[in-house]
Automatic annotation (TrEMBL), chain A:
Family: Belongs to the membrane-bound acyltransferase family.
Membrane-spanning parts: 6-23, 97-114, 134-159, 171-190, 243-264, 344-361, 373-392, 404-426, 446-472, 492-509
Pfam families to which the protein is assigned, alphabetical: MBOAT (PF03062)
InterPro entries given in the database record: Ac/AlaTfrase_AlgI/DltB, AlgI, MB_O-acyltransferase, MBOAT_fam
PANTHER family referenced in this protein's UniProt entry, alphabetically: ACYLTRANSFERASE (PTHR13285), PROTEIN-CYSTEINE N-PALMITOYLTRANSFERASE RASP (PTHR13285:SF18)
Protein's organism: Massilimicrobiota timonensis
Name of protein: Alanine transporter
GO cellular component: plasma membrane
Subcellular compartments: Cell membrane
GO BP annotations, alphabetical order: alginic acid biosynthetic process
Keyword Transmembrane helix among UniProt keywords: yes
Membrane topology annotation: Multi-pass membrane protein
From TrEMBL, chain B:
Xref: SUPFAM superfamilies: SGNH hydrolase
Domain of life assignment: Bacteria
Organism, scientific name: Massilimicrobiota timonensis
InterPro entries for the chain: SGNH_hydro_sf (IPR036514)
Protein's name according to its UniProt entry: SGNH/GDSL hydrolase family protein
Upper taxonomic lineage: Bacteria, Bacillati, Bacillota, Erysipelotrichia, Erysipelotrichales
Length: 522, 331
């Protein structure tokens, strides 16, 4: 049940909203939790709900267990002397570690087994077993809906409790709702417990502004998804599925169209998700902040899939860089290595794990690992060669604030991102390489690329509209707030025009394929 | 309820009215003004019945692509003198069949409705419900169906009323003469596939049968030979439904020997659809069956039906020139 289907928008979301509105405030969470589980069952297989229930119960018990261990320490620590307190603290820390590792083992283990076991078997078969002419058969597995998203949320909750960021929640339904909230289950955003769990659980009365703003956000998301992304998809599939036929400008266009497709689709989905939540007066974090205005790759990843980036920072980067063996190793490098390198080496080592995880999170294949490594290497180049770049900039008297330099930086980032998108979309690494090389070969002619001229014009017009909206947002102008202040006639004309644009120019129905959300498969 | 809430509800109602008005107006513009492909109508061969003389068809057959490849109304006419039309669309679902059924009664009063039942086996209720909402919206606001016509919109679309009177020579049948064998014989009947109907399908099937009966038509459930999708379990499911509604069920997959069907010769795509050789065998048997079971009148010498004899001749004349053209519908 994709978020752009009639059944979701008109039937599921509509009826959930009505029930939520009429239910007493104290019990509104029941509507959301029931709707979330119903969504899960309808969008997946009935029995697959076991997986999300297992994760819910395990992290609920795990978190309470961690708190109980803490409570024991707090209750007895005053009666102990310093040495005893230190010993107990170490013991408690060890116990907490055991609990958190056990919970992570269950949840991560499940994710790894279901998502990566075939990938690992293939690697084993190719790298070792092939030489002995034996192979392990692949396992037929079903991937539970949203497992990559809710598992990360579950980990963030249990690790935050372990780190003492907040206490374990004794309300099981709140934990359950946090993990299963239906708008976020398929594609995120990957939320944090302290940011959304209480919002979800407490009842919100009908709020006209939130209701209308939510609907506007859904409409905007629909515009991006079905007017732009699904149309761009036709050209992208046409070229990528038969890439040997194309070269030169046509390949460049296909790569750019894929970048457009992925951005408008994923950010469009996030708008529908956030809009759906806003109908219930629930605010979800944004996953995108105008990524194509980024002036560097670092900045790009702070603006693109923000919740995944911040999750990796908090639970991979910090976990690695604050671990005892890593600290010892950092100190060793500082003592024995070159001052400049030893300053960067610890961070670059921790980042390696971040980007490996980023790549693997997107999919169980070498291609995605290389996608992660591509960005990792670029970031490392940026880090280690920064003095060189500084020297060049100084030599040419280039200031960071210089407008031309800023535009150059944005274009450079877009170029790098497009190559990343090529790796992401191409079937294999060799086809990505072939397409990259073919960009510089062939002609400037544009053959038929699976998209009629009128459709292509719609994509271009759509991108211009998205660009203008992004520009306004970049300048901290809230378009929705701004329009809300207009007189009713132009305001409603604007909304109705938007709605009719989606209805008429949407790439749906006969002649268009139903395009599943790309990120739903992760 | 306070004043502000009342005001907001009133605003929402007015906004909704404006949305409905816009959808209605845009529907009038984009809806095809003729029932031809050139005018943008969907699956014109399924909608050629509009061009037939009012109340002239005795049989309307509704189904998916299996049907338009298996039942040839002109052969049925030539052999039995029964005027019929095949309203079949690719990948049709029962909710779409129901919508098409309602359209056929606008200018026809068929004695018999044939429903091709392979389309009843769908994936899930969620998908079926989504299609049913979509189909309902399309019926009320055709803009949801024909929105893509913005590319070809002309001045006439704003001023002309729709006039659906174009005929299709083959009466909905699609001619294919290529052969791509299926070599599995009857083994496909033993395949294991989902053989239950979703609740949504059951609901629309019930509505379909009720609507046809209320309009004075009998209903015949039929399944054309199809090796890629059909199974014995599906046959049993449909037989139960036929018994429940006291309908006849004609499953050609059970009659392969009776009609001398040859999977190595009578299919055009490896067992999924029939070619003209297969269609001839199915239609011949069907004609005899219909005559025997329903006692249809033979109109071959009837004055009002002489155009059918001409259509039959024209079809065979045109076919000589179009032998190699697959998907031929007489245009």
């Amino acid at each position: 049940m994709a978020y752009t289907t009639y059944i979701y928008l008109l039937l599921f979301l509509g009826s959930t909203f009505l029930l939520y509105t009429v239910f007493p405030k104290k019990y509104k969470w029941i509507v959301l939790l029931s709707a979330s589980y119903l969504y899960y069952i309808l969008a997946s297989r009935v029995w697959m709900i076991i997986f999300i229930l297992l994760t819910t119960i395990s992290i609920y018990i795990g978190a309470i267990w961690l708190d109980k261990i803490n409570d024991i320490f707090v209750s007895v620590k005053k009666s102990l002397d310093r040495q005893q307190r230190k010993e107990l603290k170490e013991k408690i820390l060890w116990q907490k570690k055991c609990v958190v590792v056990f919970i992570l083992f269950i949840n991560l283990g499940l994710l790894i087994f279901l998502k990566y076991s075939n990938f690992l078997i293939s690697l084993l078969n190719i790298s070792i077993l092939e030489q002995f002419q034996i192979s392990i058969p692949l396992i037929k597995l079903f991937l539970p809906l949203g497992i990559s998203f809710y598992t990360l949320q579950a980990i963030s909750y249990i690790v935050d409790v372990y780190r003492g960021k907040y206490h374990a929640d004794e309300c099981l339904s709140r934990v359950a709702l946090y993990l299963a909230f239906f708008p976020t289950i398929v594609e995120g955003p990957i939320t944090r417990y302290n940011e959304v769990a209480y919002q979800l659980y407490e009842g919100h009365s009908f709020d006209y502004k939130n209701f209308t703003f939510g609907l506007q956000l859904i409409l905007w998301g629909m515009f991006k998804k079905i007017v732009i992304a699904d149309r761009a998809n036709m050209l992208v599939n046409y070229v990528f599925d038969d890439y040997l036929k194309f070269s030169g400008l046509s390949v460049v266009i296909a790569i750019i169209f894929y970048t457009i497709q992925l951005y408008t689709e994923f950010s469009g989905c996030m708008d529908i998700v956030r809009g759906s939540a806003q109908l219930f007066s629930i605010r979800l974090p944004d996953n995108f902040r105008q990524p194509f205005f980024a002036k560097s790759i670092n900045e790009f990843w702070q603006r693109w899939h923000i919740t995944l980036g911040s999750w990796l920072r908090d639970y991979v980067f910090y976990s690695v860089s604050l671990s005892a063996p890593f600290k010892r190793w950092s100190q060793f490098v500082k003592k024995h290595g070159n001052e400049y390198v030893s300053k960067l080496l610890p961070a670059s080592t921790a980042l390696f794990f971040v980007w490996i995880c980023n790549g693997l999170w997107h999919g169980a294949s070498i291609k995605y690992v290389m996608y992660g490594m591509y960005y990792y290497l670029l970031m490392m180049l940026g880090m280690y060669l920064e003095p060189v770049f500084m020297k060049i900039k100084n030599a040419f008297h280039i200031q960071n604030q210089n407008k031309f330099f800023q535009i150059f930086s944005i274009i450079r980032t877009i170029l790098i991102v497009n190559i990343g998108m090529l790796i992401f979309r191409a079937d294999t690494l060799s086809s990505a390489w072939h397409m990259l090389v073919s960009c510089f070969q062939g002609t400037m002619d544009i053959p038929y690329m699976g998209l009629a001229l009128k459709d292509m014009m719609i994509v271009i017009m759509g991108v211009i509209i998205v660009y203008i909206m992004s520009l306004l947002k970049e300048k901290n102008i809230s378009v929705r707030e701004h329009i809300a202040k207009w007189h009713i006639v132009p305001r409603w004309t604007f909304y109705l025009t938007g709605l009719m644009i989606v209805v008429i120019f949407g790439a749906y129905g006969r002649g268009y394929d139903i395009v599943s959300f790309i990120y739903a498969q992760f | 309820m306070n004043k502000q809430n009342m005001k907001n509800i009133l605003k929402m109602m007015i906004f909704l009215c404006l949305v409905i008005t816009l959808l209605h107006l845009s529907s009038r513009i984009v809806e095809p003004k003729q029932n031809t492909k050139e005018s943008g109508i969907k699956y014109e061969n399924a909608r050629g019945f509009y061009g037939e003389r009012q109340n002239s068809l005795d049989i309307i057959a509704i189904g998916n692509s299996d049907l338009y490849n298996a039942m040839n109304p002109l052969q049925l006419w030539h052999e039995q003198g029964i005027p019929s039309y095949v309203c079949a669309e690719p990948s049709q679902k029962i909710v779409e069949a129901y919508s098409l059924l309602k359209q056929t009664y606008l200018n026809q009063t068929p004695q018999l409705i044939i429903l091709e039942v392979d389309e009843l086996f769908t994936k899930s209720d969620v998908d079926d419900l989504d299609i049913s909402i979509s189909e309902t919206l399309k019926e009320i606001f055709p803009v949801f169906d024909y929105h893509n016509r913005w590319k070809n919109i002309q001045k006439d679309d704003f001023i002309k009323e729709k006039v659906y009177n174009q005929k299709i020579l083959t009466k909905g049948y699609k001619y294919y003469n290529n052969v791509q064998s299926y070599k599995g014989g009857k083994s496909y009947l033993k395949n294991k596939k989902k053989s239950s109907l979703t609740y949504t399908t059951q609901y629309y099937l019930n509505e379909f049968i009720k609507y046809a009966k209320n309009n004075g038509s009998q209903v015949l459930l039929m399944c054309c030979p199809t090796a890629n999708t059909w199974t014995m379990d599906k046959h049993h499911t449909i037989q139960k439904i036929a018994d429940q509604y006291q309908l006849q069920f004609l499953d050609f997959n059970m009659l392969l020997d009776d009609i001398d069907f040859d999977w190595t010769h009578d299919t055009r795509d490896g067992g999924n659809h029939l070619n003209d050789f297969g269609a001839q065998k199915v239609t011949h048997y069907l004609g005899n069956y219909l005559k025997l079971q329903y006692h249809f009148q033979d109109y071959r010498t009837h004055q009002d039906y002489q155009n059918w004899n001409q259509d039959y001749l024209e079809y065979h004349q045109k076919l000589k020139y179009y032998k190699g053209k697959n998907g031929f519908i007489g245009k």
